[in-house]
Amino acid sequence: MPSEACIDRLSPELLMPIMKALPDIGSVSSFLMASPTAYRIFSAHDVAAIEIFESCLSGGLLHSHTCALIRNAAQVRSWSLPSHVNSLQSLRKLVRFETTTWRCITPEWDFPVSTLPPSAELSTPRTLLARYCKIERSTEACLEFYLQRFRPLRPR
Question: Were both Cys, which of 3, 20, 96, 129 would link to 55 (CB 3.0–4.6 Å)?
């Protein structure tokens, strides 16, 4: 019978800082697959999962526009949009504002940048993690497909 990994013998209080220090969402996914204890913590505690996700998003490895889209998706999924977003048009304005480098800040737009909703359902971080992994796999498959098509080409 295989012995339990050393990391799985750590208490949740010690595992949480380790998971928060992971640099990106892909690393969190790999860590959760490798450690059943970490997976249980992530799956059972919505606050812990949100904190881990937020630390990955604010870590600086993901582009700020990608982070904004992930946060907006979490807000929509958990029905916790900011109070000033009360129509499809205002949601579009929010997404455009947070995902463009050039921002024409109008006088009525003085709202803070979105964060992950602390009151999100337990399924929200897991769904975001699954969606991120699926997009990552699709992107890698697409890049591999085109790389195979371009490998035989030689410059003239």
Answer: 20
Question: For 31-74, what is each residue's pLDDT tens digit?
Answer: 988 888 888 888 887 778 888 888 888 887 888 888 888 888 88
Q: Judge whether 49 and 42 are in contact, CB under 8 Å.
A: yes
For 121-144, the DSSP string reads -THHHHHHHHHHHHHHHHHHHHHH
**Average pLDDT over all residues of the chain:** 81
- C-alpha to C-alpha distance for 6 and 38, rounded to whole angstroms: 12
The residue type at 92? R
CA angle 55, 138, 155 (to 5 degrees): 115
- Give the predicted TM-score (pTM) of the model: 0.69
Rounded to whole angstroms, the Cα distance separating 126 from 8 reads 20
In the chain, which ranges are continuous DSSP H helix? 12-20, 25-34, 36-44, 46-57, 64-77, 88-98, 123-150
Domain ranges of the chain: 1-62+122-156
Name the maximum alpha-carbon separation found in the chain.
65
Burial classification of residue 9, based on how many CB atoms lie within 10 Å of its CB (0-12 exposed, 13-18 middle, 19 or more buried): exposed
